[in-house]
Write a structure and sequence with these properties.
The chain is an all-alpha fold. The chain is built from 15 helices and no strands.
Length: 413
Amino acid sequence: MTTVLLIVIYLVFISLGLPDSLIGTAWPAISASLNIDESFQGFITSAISLCTIISSFFSIYIIRKLKTSGTIVLSIGLTVLGLVLFTLMPNFYLLFIACIPLGLGGGAIDATLNNYVALHYKALHMNWLHSFWGVGATTSPLIISYFLTNDINGRRKGGLVLAAIQFSILLVSILAIPLYKKCEIIFAKREVQEVKKEEKANISILDTFRIRGIFFALFGFLAYTSVESLTGMWFSSYVHFGLTNTDGSALVSEAQAAKWGSFFYLGITIGRFISGLLSLKIKEKNMIRIGEVIIAIGIVLLSINVNLSIILLPISIVLIGLGCAPIYPAIIKDTPNRFTSTYSQNVMGIQMSFAYISNFIIAPAFGFIAKATSFIYLPYFIIAFFLLLVFGNEGINFKIKYYKGDILKLKTK
């Protein structure tokens, strides 16, 4: 029974990835078809991220009302609506209407599913499930690239295809609602037998911020998602708008830029299959460190490619994707270990909110800075947040070691 549910969750993780890479990889074509500035992507991603932050922040209350299965169905339904609207809207201002369901749908399901899997399944599945997020995120730019190659307005046809895929996953999720109820009983019995059942905390959001060490975890997570969002959102624009020939023309076409953008998510997908196997032997904190080393190598290659060879571009983006692969699942999986299952859902919701701050502020801000200067500065922004990522993750490791289990006590006023 739990295995069948796991298969459904794998499909749901594909649905999580489908919308995430759509805007970044298709934006050069979107800005051209709507005759708007390329930096305006920042407004769209900020609007989506604001809605995502809101739904993530209040996910604990949504889950209490709708349970896990209801939250998932509602969230996927909203993303289907958002994809259709985003595809059909005829001008820039109407795109903001599509941002509302896309953002609200993405935040709640992310916090819900990640905590659910972290509590009930092994680290191997956490990595492999997130590799299926990569399958969705890789599929979007490949579909968009295919339609752009054959049709100047192909991004609309590609968007409708993505919406159709998302809708089919929604139908499966609706049919799986009884499975969640049956598996909850199985999981509850398992926890009792393993003497691991803990009373769930009913603390406020403000009290959650008083847990020791949480800020290291939050800013480390924000830094990781900043590295991921900066790379995923702007790499296609970086190679299309930032790299030019001597006459000022684009060095890389829109279709080629979208295709190379998919390499980032391909690297994440492959990396998470591999890290799933490694997680059987390697602890989460060391998986994070391995990922950080690989990202560092990718950033170095990305930084020197303009002066050396354009061939390094696809190599560098694949390496950054491979490095990102184990970090997100490892942080998620380690959350109940860091803060226990008592506080994990509270912490998870806030972590997700902080994660999407990068999409709301940081990644859009780079778009405006790049417009005023050049997209060529993308690697330096990635480096800055990579260093913050290392600081945050090593900081929480120090806190856990320093307090020796006392980290879970709420700070006294």
